[in-house]
Amino acid sequence: MISQSCRSEYLAANGFxxxxxxxxxTSIMTENTHHDATRRNQLLAxxxxxxxxxxxxxxxxxxxxRRERAAELHLPLDPINVQ
Length: 83
Fold this sequence. Notes:
By secondary structure, the chain is mostly helical. The protein contains 2 helices and no strands. It has one domain.
């Protein structure tokens, strides 16, 4: 079994914090929680990037569709000023 001090040194060397007064198992929980948060943040960033790509494509499609419909109906795309 690995001693608490060895485990703390390993975790500190790998970017995790662990208090010497922590109860056994807490350092592992800290490591797992950090790993889970990192993984969740990576997945969230990937999802947001995919959503942004989708929104750009959707906006481009809507603009193209609007221009095509306006051309078919011979409508101006500029806003109409009503006074």
